Amino acid sequence: MKTDMKRISILLITVFALCGCKKFVEPALQNNGKFENIYDEPLLAHGLLLNGYTRIPTNGWTFSDVATDNAVTNDLNSGFSKIATGQWTASFNPLDQWTNSKAAIQYLNMFLTEADKVTFDALDPKLNQMFKDRLKGEAFGLRAMFMYYMLQAHGGKAGGELLGFPILLQPETPSSDFNQPRAKFDDCMKQVYADLEQAEELLPLDYRDISSPSDIPAKYSGVATEIYNRVFGRLFSQRFTARIAKAIRAKAALMAASPAFAEGSSTTWENAANYAAAVIDLNGGVNGLAANGLTWYAGGSGNQIDGLGSGANPPEVMWRTSIAQNSDLEASHFPPTLSGSGRLNPTQNLVDAFPAANGYPIDNTASGYNEATPYTNRDPRLALYIVLNGSTAGPGSSTIYTATDRNTNDGLNKVETSTRTGYYMRKLLRQDVNRSSSSISNQKHYNPHIRYTEIYLIYAEAANEAWGPLATGGHSYSAYDVIKKIRQRAGVGLNNGDAYLESIKGDKNAMRTLIRNERRLELCFEGFRFWDLRRWNANLNEPALGVNIMQSTYTPITVENRAYASFMNYGPVPYSEILKFKALQQNNGW
């Protein structure tokens, strides 16, 4: 989109606030605006919808990996570090989505309730209807997405039932009954699906300019192409689409079919696989996996960001934020000698999860792994995503030494901004950023809301559970096919035909382990690991390990123990909400 969405949304919300809202706030004497103004001033109504966009959790990085076995942080004030070490309560929850998502849903409900009364174009009835359809479709899609985030963060067992959140489809007013019980998890999922279906009916697959009347949907027949493009053209790229709705459906279904939620859900692994396949088929099948999907965040010579046109995406990214020019990520995560704070420190656990270059796990004798040279002949993604001892980084390709016997602040625990594990994060960071106080250079960045690799991994996991590694369920590819393609792209097993994958391709359990590990590697540091461990009912208490390197000897160390209770596979409803509303049930244990 040519305009910066955040800037527009803030402006519109400010205008809306200045106009007043008599339904909800008694305006000051000098403020004569009325809520009813939205019917003739569509920008004010649009502000309600844009509030949903400003609240999307993936508008920024959370780095919740530091609450898992993937990473720790040297930031003593990190909320994720605190919950991992025993301070997680219903009153202190950095993972809370109740407040944010419920507020977004309120604004979206207000928009959906009033949208049909708004005049978006007074001169052309068809244009007016197209605007209504598109904006309502966006609102339905966003509402479904926020419901998904509510379920992910707060769905859980209360008594003998798996519950979600109170389903609210109308805006709450001062006269509303706020004391509403949580609906069953499955009923919440059904509402997610219903909203996504509405979104798909109202929205185009993608926003693009058309040149032929034959491309115009039948319901808008007779509309000129330039009029159609005013509503559904490329200028609205990065707004919610039918394609995005299909992806959200796959994401939600994967969660609902997983072990932690399956008991209270009618969604099956087969459903999740089919929903993901619907997206993959639109992307060219298994061969549509972007060859440069490993470096979607790269700039400079990689040209993944710098070369993007207005509203365009690289092949790996389905939906993203606006592009911003800054160096904030690098300031937080570069090693100290590159003028960074070294905040996120990958663990030895994660490093050990990367296989050997021949595809075998490093605990398999066929891998050829050598403890004396642990980074030699490893999966290329290891050096691509993590700064190792001896790696080069930054605009001058400086060598980073994390060994304790090196005279550098990059070494293990040297200063407060040094690594605690012996590793620094490299993924997501642009190496052409210069953070030197004498010459700070900002570069282009964005956050993906949805990457295609995630959808391919959803299919692999769900298809393996539904039909096994090799069966296709009626599609043209299997879980095995997808994982083989992902590993080939990474440069794994190229010299031996990926012998390890071939050896397990008939074993559903072994393939499950491999798929989960590939998901861990491909999506590391992007905010997936915490939610994956919980939906799998996996162990949250793996100690976070690091390495002490001295005189070329690599000694494992325990950096941080985890302190999760068993009931914490499900997050809490905010304690303040439980105090206010008797009808709300808290999840067990909280």
Describe the structure.
InterPro entries: SusD-like_N, SusD_RagB_dom, TPR-like_helical_dom_sf. It is found in: Cell outer membrane. Residues 334-590 form the RagB/SusD domain. It contains 19 helices and 16 strands. It starts with a helix and ends in a 10-residue tail after the last helix. The protein is α+β, with helices and mostly antiparallel strands. It has a two-stranded antiparallel sheet with strand order 1-6. A two-stranded antiparallel ribbon has the order 2-3. Strands 4-14 form a two-stranded antiparallel sheet. The longest helix is centred in the N-terminal third of the chain and has 30 residues, at 125-154. A hairpin with a 4-residue loop joins β8 and β9 (398-400). Mean pLDDT is 93; it is low at 1-29.
Task: Supply database-style keywords.
SusD-like_N; 19 helices; alpha+beta; disordered N terminus; two-stranded antiparallel ribbon; signal; SusD_RagB_dom; membrane; cell outer membrane
In short:
The protein has 590 residues and is an alpha+beta fold. Helices cover 38% and strands 10% of the residues. Strands 1-6 form a two-stranded antiparallel sheet. It has a two-stranded antiparallel sheet with strand order 2-3. A two-stranded antiparallel ribbon has the order 4-14.
